[in-house]
Amino acid sequence: MEDFPVRTLVSSILVSLLAFGLIFAATPVSAQDDLALVCSAPVDGAILGVVPTTVTLTLSAEPETVAVTVSDADGNALEGVEASADGAVVTVAAAFEAGVTYTVSLDDTDVSITFTVAENALVVDEPQLVNDCPAVEEPAVEATEEPMVEATEEATEEPMVEATEEVAEVAVLSEEVYEDSAGNIDFSVNLPADYVAVENTSFFLFPVVVMAADEDTANAYVSTPDSVDSYVVIYTTFTSEDLPAFGLTTEATAEEIVSALIRSDSEVLDQTMTEVAGAPAVRVRFTNETSGKDGIFYVVSFADEEATGYLLIQGSAASDSWSDYESAFEALVASITVLE
Fold this sequence. Notes:
Elements: H1 4-19, E1 37-41, E2 47-50, E3 54-59, E4 68-72, E5 82-86, E6 89-93, E7 100-106, E8 112-122, E9 173-182, E10 185-192, E11 196-200, E12 208-212, H2 215-223, E13 232-239, H3 254-261, E14 266-276, E15 279-288, E16 293-302, E17 309-318, H4 322-334, E18 337-338
Parallel strand pairs: 2-8
Antiparallel strand pairs: 1-3, 3-6, 4-7, 5-6, 7-8, 9-10, 10-18, 11-12, 12-13, 13-17, 14-15, 15-16, 16-17
């Protein structure tokens, strides 16, 4: 056949290469290639209301090497990133900033998450990041073959006290979007995960939307707000033309609106100016001894040529559990978007 000389030549080359050890065995697949992401803090796609100091990635197995790249939306890699592993949990420390979308990737794997730090994200000492890790189940203890030792002490008459405190479940944002308007400005806001939104026209001077774990909780809040100590988000909208209903002029400032709206039995812990969805806003952190609740509310001013539209949005929970929900509420506020 005409191609015989070619075959002979190829065979000769292969024999020569083998003789000199120039053909290597295929590189074995590293266990690093099989790593998968089990869960992370923050969750992939999160919008953070606080600036993180670290990110954690829980993997399917312990990595052989720990090399992590943190980049912004333009693909620029951050410098000074530090990563360490404790078993299958990788902790990444970097100089994260507000108003930036980050991608954290474990090199030589398909493991990565992307999250956004909101423009108005807070800088706190110990930011709490919502994670999507499944609850760890304690392994069942097998019975031993040793005989049971009989108790020699007499039982007391005191009944066993059952634990009444429940571990707070931090509500992360749902993909479900609720759309509304403040004056002539249309906006959207994400609901907390697994929450419902209930509209009510009798709770306040203007219609309100209550976001709660279920309709019963939302209705209970509308009926008697102080009786509900679980995490609830409530908001209402109005315009500058409605301000006389609060005893204010149509030219009142946002600070004056805050003073008119806050309950007399509430204590303002701090009050700052910030932005929400590109609009000026007043942020108020408060505590209320009567209800035993803490929370934060925003008064956002959406100005246009005709009148200023206002959005009043508040998140609150029992004082001893509010810290579990604060970052989730800030993330919800950060999700507010003005619609075209």
